[in-house]
Design brief:
There is one protein chain. The chain has 24 helices and ten strands. The protein is mainly alpha-helical and 652 residues long. The strands form four sheets. It has a three-stranded antiparallel beta sheet. A hairpin with a 5-residue loop joins strand 1 and strand 2. The protein starts with a helix and ends in a 17-residue tail after the last helix.
């Protein structure tokens, strides 16, 4: 077997450059502790090796570099994203930690291979194993490892800890979160300039008096406490006109407002976390009456920014204005440090341009702690990496019985982890994104095609926007989000399976024109002693292959004809006198209809009090619909007081 590592050592003995600036000049060499790719303008900028043990660092650098060179040669555009380089380095280090060695060509040897497989057994979830097996296959395909890698064979080595899907938040909890976020924006939007002014004045006051003469981090413990106490007291007094204002150099109080603003942007667009953090007030546009947000996406574009647009709501503009102006003190401070360091030649033009671009975002770091004060940072975009970034305790969620049931239905991976009176098991921006997609599907705000074209295509103005603004969308796939569409498809199928399971195996009573055949089928099978009519596996198969389809009607009930053009969803009137042969109503649907009936009675009584003949035909329509609903309630054994009425309008 040839010695791959010796060949790599010989090939890289002169330590060639691995990265270059925008003018083509070499920046980082293969065996440097940091590979600097700032000039590429990708979301990932650096690959760091300084924390790797010395005995393994050079080997991991060599294999990472060689693999990237070989894959660049094979790529049509001769390009490998920085994020892929970083992922390769991390996975090679993961293999080294498990195996104990970093000459990966040795895995060609059967003894070493068996040793590695034995060490990795039951130590990782399936998702992590898949990444490692894919990396080993890349080494094999590149000729750096003389062994065929069967990725599927790794499945049996997992510790069976299934990676869980992101949450879909119950509708009422989602609304509660949105309401909290909007309330914060409404309260603090009028104070947005004042917040930054107070921060700026407080910092300037202590900068002139103390900060330039004393390095805070060098003070003894008592001195540092007194300095911080004095600064906080001064800042709080200055900001006493701002509700609940609290001064802190790290900007923790302001950061809590920033979080709510970010939540609003994500919840009203479905944007990815990184995409939402590229926006500012200038990102908000209105086209043909439709509010839009323009931002950058890095997905499926080799990590390089690409302009896209999302439909949104005017509250997003308020959120962006609030966060942008409230953090202006930090933006100005970092911009001054950037300018000063660039003027003095301490940073490159690529670093300066990258920093300036990031500081144009509304969502930047709010901390001016001593470690960051007057420093050029490696990145200015707000970090959302911590598990409790959104602070569930602050959101004060207390789930009801109905919310727990909905949570379990929508999140089989998390079944049982939301308790009555308890909070969500976790909350991330991506959970909000998935919840947005589910909300769209469940509330019939558009079909898959409209969601594909911007998540909220729900009126004719939107259609006009797509027809008349070709220069903005540039191509059909501009607004396609494959990940989100996958989430939508999964959610649609999951909801359909649950609906059919309720229809065939759950509900006690069925009604509607489409229920006749199912009732007969149920009687026949249950009469033979069967406990279920169709198993969930059977239903899943029928839904996924398209044999069965179902649509949840807003007024309750299901339509099993997905291409139907009837208007069964119109709440106030009976659309057609002939019963629909595709409508199915379950016990759960009937309860919804009971609530609908109460709303119609309230509407009837309100109009009837006006005693206006012009409303008489509307009132008649209400009564017909109410009577029809009462028949449905009878079919499902739901108690109600019969509706007795007299239309007061003078018919003469």
């Amino acid at each position: 077997m040839f010695n791959t590592l010796e060949k790599l050592e010989d090939e890289f003995k002169n330590n060639p450059f691995i990265s270059f600036d925008s003018d083509g000049n070499g920046i980082s060499r293969i065996f440097d502790d940091k590979w600097d790719f700032v000039s590429r303008r990708e979301s990932t900028r650096y690959v760091l090796f300084h924390k790797l043990p010395p005995e393994h660092k050079k080997n991991i650098q060599s294999f990472t570099a060689k693999l990237s060179f070989l894959e660049m040669d094979q790529a049509i555009d001769n390009y490998v994203p920085v994020a892929k380089l970083l992922r390769t380095k991390k996975l090679l280090w993961a293999i080294t930690k498990i195996w104990g060695k970093s000459d990966f060509s040795l895995l060609s040897n059967n003894i070493e291979w068996l040793k590695f497989k034995e060490n990795i057994k039951r130590r990782m979830p399936l998702g992590s194993l898949k990444q490692i097996s894919t990396t080993l296959r890349r080494l094999s395909n590149a000729g750096l490892l003389n062994r065929y890698i069967d990725c599927k064979a790794f499945n049996e080595l997992s510790n069976e800890k299934k990676s869980k899907q992101h949450l879909s938040i119950p509708t009422t909890i989602y609304s509660q979160l949105l309401q909290q976020a909007v309330e914060v924006i409404e309260v603090y939007h009028p104070h947005r300039y004042e917040i930054s002014t107070v921060m700026r004045k407080t910092i300037a006051h202590f900068d002139n008096d103390l900060l330039k003469r004393i390095h805070v981090h060098r003070l003894d413990e008592n001195g540092a406490k007194y300095f911080n106490y004095t600064m906080v007291k001064y800042g709080n007094e200055l900001g006493k006109g701002i509700p609940n204002f609290r001064f802190h150099l790290k900007g923790e109080w302001i950061k809590s407002i920033v979080k709510y603003c970010l939540m609003v942007v994500v919840m009203f667009t479905g944007m990815r976390s990184r995409e939402s953090r590229t926006t500012n007030p200038n990102s908000y546009k209105v086209f043909a009456g439709i509010p839009m947000l323009c931002g950058n996406t890095y997905k499926s574009n080799k990590g390089v920014a690409k302009k896209e647009v999302w439909v949104t709501h005017p509250i997003a503009l308020k959120a962006l204005e609030l966060v942008h102006e409230a953090t202006m003190y930090a933006r100005e401070h970092f911009r001054n440090a950037l300018e000063e360091n660039f003027t003095e030649g301490l940073i490159s033009k690529d670093e300066y341009d990258r920093g300036s671009e990031e500081l144009a975002s509304s969502f930047i770091t709010t901390s001016l702690s001593s470690e960051r004060y007057n420093k050029v940072l490696s990145g200015y975009i707000l970090s959302v990496g911590s598990k409790d970034f959104l602070n569930l305790k602050q959101l004060k969620i207390k789930a009801t019985h109905e919310e727990v049931e909905e949570f379990n239905l929508l999140n089989p991976d998390w079944y049982g982890e939301l308790k009555i009176g308890g909070s969500l098991p976790k909350l991330s921006l991506h959970d909000l994104r998935r919840s947005f997609a589910v909300f769209m599907v469940r509330n019939k705000l558009g079909n898959i095609q409209t969601i594909k074209h911007q998540l909220k295509h729900k009126n004719i103005n939107m259609s006009n926007w797509y027809a008349n603004n070709a220069e903005l969308i540039r191509s059909e796939d501009l607004l396609i989000d494959k990940d989100l569409m996958s989430e939508v498809d999964k959610t649609t199928q999951s909801l359909a399976i649950e609906a059919f399971d309720d229809i065939y195996n759950g509900t006690q009573s069925l009604s509607g024109g489409g229920s006749v055949r199912i009732i007969e089928e149920r009687k026949k099978l249950l009469g033979k002693g069967e406990t279920i009519v169709l198993s969930r596996d059977e239903l899943e198969s029928l839904v996924r292959n398209g044999t069965k389809s179902i649509v949840l009607l807003p007024t309750g009930g299901y339509c099993t004809n997905s291409s139907c053009e009837r208007v069964c969803s119109i709440e106030s009137f009976v659309a057609e006198s002939k019963p629909c042969q595709h409508l199915i109503i379950t016990d759960k649907s009937a309860k919804q209809m009971a609530a609908q009936r109460k709303r119609l009675i309230v509407a009837f009584e309100s109009l009837n009090e006006m005693e206006d003949y012009a409303y008489s035909r509307i009132l008649i329509g209400y009564t017909v619909k109410i009577r029809q609903l009462e028949q449905t309630l009878k079919s499902h054994n739901i108690d109600f007081e019969p509706f007795i009425y007299t239309i007061k309008a003078n018919h003469e």
